[in-house]
Amino acid sequence: MLLMVYFLSLAAMFKDLKIFIYELPSEYNENWLSNKRCSNHLFASEVAIHRALLNADDFRTFDPNEADLFFVPVYVSCNFSTVNGSPTIVHARSLLFSAIQFITKNYPFWNRSQGFDHIFVASHDYGACFHAMEDRAIDNGIPEFLMNSILLQTFGVNYKHPCQDVENVLIPPYISPESIRKTLEKAPLTGNRDIMVFFRGKMEVHPKNVSGKFYSKRVRTEIWRRYKGDRRFFLQRHRFTGYQSEITRSVFCLCPLGWAPWSPRLVESVALGCVPVIIADGIRLPFSSAVKWSEISLTVAEREVGKLGQILEHVAATNLSTIQKNLWDPAVRRALLFNDHMQRGDATWQILTSLYKKLNRSYRRSRVPSQ
């Protein structure tokens, strides 16, 4: 009942929220979709949000003069390296700047507010800095032409960081809701979980790379070193396309940092009912008003990774059932998944909630009037 009242009150709040979506030339978005990975990889929230907003009749306006906010649909993460197949965003700044030039040439609204009411998606590792490596991201900083805008970004930490020095809404990485649905059809949330602790991913024995940086701050290396022979831990260093089925068999899923603090494992763990064990000091998590992270996950300090076994044994013997009950609430899973057609409570809905709050807090007081 309380949940219904909550959604009805949000609907009432949203009745005046209007978003105008720029129609940009296809080289900024649609052309990239020729590669199917563009709409399905971990950075694909930029595509999913665009699609959801295009279908959001309650919030979309075709009259820019009545818009509260302007969405700029530029897909910067859909260029894949031919060397390792990973997304490459070296072209991001020039592509975004070109899009803004197009907007200012054809519309008056960017100059009216200097981009204050314009929204961009920065779904890759270091968000608004538009670079995948932290040292380069910090050196480059946030592009000056985006400093007044709102960035929807996956990167968030609780300490001061150059790549957060801009108005932002923290969003989850993209995981296909269809893949989650198919996996759950085969293995329900409350099914047999015969793996106590699960992690599949990069765990380098010698993690120092050519830049002198240590991958995962050696956290993943330490996990492998300490627990590779521990029967409680199911650790795999190689890719497996059916790994979601392993998550549904697991009680605890490790979510250690990689180069960046966040990981798609966090969303997959929550969506598939495995208690996420977050090992990334200072990470800031998305949609904290809708997802009570402290009630559905565990946080272990990077320096405490050597005590993982005893920490998880203690939780399993005390309050595991309470955590799982909270975690298996369908509303929690819904809040972290993007749908092409927005659903009440899903990730796009949470973004609109956050944007509406920002409007009430600052935008309506600060908007620069037309000249």
UniProtKB/TrEMBL annotation:
Signal peptide: 1-19
One annotated GO biological process: glucuronoxylan biosynthetic process
Keyword Transmembrane (UniProt): yes
Main location: Golgi
Protein's UniProt keywords contain GTP-binding: no
InterPro entries: Exostosin, Exostosin_GT47
Single GO cellular component term: Golgi membrane
Gene Ontology terms for molecular function: glycosyltransferase activity
Residue span(s) of domain Exostosin GT47: 15-314
Keywords: Glycosyltransferase, Golgi apparatus, Signal, Signal-anchor, Transferase, Transmembrane
Compartment(s) of residence: Golgi apparatus membrane
Pfam family, one: Exostosin_GT47
Similarity field: Belongs to the glycosyltransferase 47 family.
Name of the molecule in the record: Exostosin GT47 domain-containing protein
Species this protein is from: Gossypium klotzschianum
